[in-house]
Amino acid sequence: MRIGMLTGGGDCPGLNAVLRAVVRKGVFHYHDEFVGFLEGWRGMIEDKSIALDLDAVSGILPRGGTILRTSRTNPSKRPDGIDRCVAAIDKHKIDALIAIGGDDTLSVAQKLHEKGIKVIGVPKTIDNDLGGTDYTFGFDTACNVVCEAIDRVHTTAEAHNRVMVVEVMGRDAGWIALYSGIAGGADVILIPERPFDVDKVAESIRQRHERGRYFSIVVVAEGAKFSSDGLGAPILQDMGKDEFGHAKLGGIANILAREIEKRTGFETRAVVLGHIQRGGSPSAFDRVLATRYGLGAIDMVHRGEFGCMAALRSNKIVSIPLKEAISKNRFVDDEMIQIVDGLFEEIGEKEAAGQ
Ligand code: F6P
């Protein structure tokens, strides 16, 4: 078969591992040929592609980013965008398309499927918030990067008697904040799922310092929301939006640091980790997971399971309808929140995990 591939949306450590696994199994076991469309859906609209053979994917397993590059181009927002994708598929005589991306990229894949294109999805996002799958690759690497950053912040916080507020990615779901916060031994973890009361956050830090501690670490997801000012809205970097309608989040750590210092009198600093979390080499876990997703996707192509996404369920790669995966985000659930609650002292009502 002749198979097209693309990587769309924010990049993610492990994308190259998926491409490599698909091409290797496709060539060795099914005698497939591959075309890689460049820069996500933009490459289809503008007809930019490369041949993907064994040489092209050689040596890319440990590399971050994606050799196909990526973009947040949304064909539905371009005149004839979807039709141009269909035309590119026809022109390159593509029998099946593997789209690797998050809910935005996969929602376009679903539209193409509805137009009769044979599409398979592979889930990708460091945020780990895609529905239908237990884990997305890239999340583990991001958590390791954040955990290391928290460890480093710890020593400087301790040396200066400071409160350090570490802002991590996580637009709608607080998985990175939660996992890396637990792993890094944070004192307060704030996630989008639970708007937080800044007075209570300050009080929990004050009480910790009363118990003899002289520094604290707060981990806050970029999409976390203040409840105390009644706003409950995420903090935005600017008013710009991408083609899928997402605002640019960021800046909550600076605001929070100021408010904590005002309320406690403790010197407080903010650290924004930003795209450092998405860059660099994938962890061993993500290399294996991404490889499994790639192998699963090429097998799905040959089983004819189109309109479906490879998903991880109970540590097995299974095939689920794309529609199911894009229908809802996967949020931090109550069980996980309770794990964090168990780690912190209660002050009046529950405090530290973002309430
Ligand atoms: O890919 C998801 C994500 O990592 C979000 O957590 C974050 O808000 C966004 O990407 C940042 O995107 P960009 O790279 O376009 O600034």
Question: What do these coordinates show?
Answer:
Helix 7 links the parallel strand 7 and strand 8. This protein starts with a strand and ends in a 14-residue tail after the last helix. The radius of gyration is 22 Å and the shape is elongated. The strands form three sheets. Strands 3-2-1-4-5-12-13 form a seven-stranded mixed beta sheet, sandwiched between helices. It has eleven helices and 13 strands. The protein has two domains: 168 residues, Rossmann fold (3-Layer(aba) Sandwich), CATH 3.40.50.450; 162 residues, 3-Layer(aba) Sandwich (Rossmann fold). Helix 5 packs across helix 6. It is an alpha/beta fold and 355 residues long. The mean pLDDT is 93. Bound molecules: 6-O-phosphono-beta-D-fructofuranose. 6-O-phosphono-beta-D-fructofuranose (F6P) binds next to loops. 6-O-phosphono-beta-D-fructofuranose binds next to loops.
Mean pLDDT across all amino acids? 93
Which CATH top level class of the largest domain fits?
Alpha Beta
Shape call:
elongated
Low-confidence stretches: none
List SSEs in N-to-C order: EHEHEHEHEHEHEHEEEHEHEEHH
CATH architecture of the largest domain: 3-Layer(aba) Sandwich
Helix content: 25-40%
Oligomerization status of the protein chains? single chain
Strand content: 15-25%
Largest sheet: 7 strands, mixed
